[in-house]
Every structure is written in structure tokens, then in C-alpha cells.
Amino acid sequence: MKRAVELAKKAGEATRPNPRVGAILVKGGKMVGAGYHRRAGLPHAEIEAIHQAGVRAKGADLYVTLEPCSSHGRTPPCTDAIIEARVRRVIYGSGDEDPRNQGKADRILRKAGIGVTRGVLEGECQRINGDYRHWTTRREPWVILKLAMTMDGYLVVPGRRWVTGAQAAGRL
Q: Which are the catalytic amino acids?
């Protein structure tokens, strides 16, 4: 799972509004496929790993940082591809907060005879997508810093205490 986390971190901000996800396929103790979600609209991490593994995906264990999607958006559901590839077991780090997917992968995959384990390195997997989780559950932007700055790059105007007015500074 640590390798899947490393891959997810490579995604950067290009996946928005989707989460950053990494995945690896392991068979016979060896990694046979790996991938990460590179950009919104492109194949998800699980699909990249399955494509890289090819026929070796059959009977392999899939480690993925986030619950595989089960809904159709710009790309088809990852659960369909996992079943079609005949993966033996799916191990994922954290559940998906998106109501279209939340908890559905477990039922779909188990019904298809695929073993499911969740919660591996859960905290680490959740931290990768703090912004995605915040937006999905609260429908509020993830704001890390808010500041006022002059056009020429000053945070404080020489000779004045505030760049903004009293209302913006919360002094009213």
C-alpha cells in the first residue's frame, strides 16, 4: 500500500475535481502493474494498473488508496474493470466520501466473488485527499490561506496597518 500512496502523491492537482489515487497489482509477491490517476478525464489508477499488468492481472491482488469507483462519470466504473480483469482481491486504504460510490464497491466486488479488505494505511490514504473529502462532504472550498496583497506584492502598505478595508479585515 505504501507504493500506492507514493503513486497517488505524484498526481498533484491535475485530477481535480477527482481525488488523487494510486494503485498496484501484486501477484506471487511481485508487482505486475502500477498506476495513478494522472488527470481528470483520463483512466483511473486501477485501470492504469490493470492495463500495465495485462493478463497477469487475473488472480492478482489490487492495492488502491481509495475505494474503487462504482459510478459512471467521464470514465466507466473501476469496479467493472476489476471484475472483468478477474482480480482475486482488492485492498484499499480509505472509503470514498462521494455518495455515488460510498460503500458500493465492497458489495459489487464481493458479489462477483472478489475478496475486499478496507482500511489499510487509512489515515495516510485520507490525508492525500483532504481537499477532495472536504469538498465532497461540505461543498465548501478547501482554503489553506487567505491574504490581501497589493498589486506590487506588499502584504502591508508602508505607513499603513492594513491593506484591506475595515469590513474585509473583520473590524466592523
A: 46
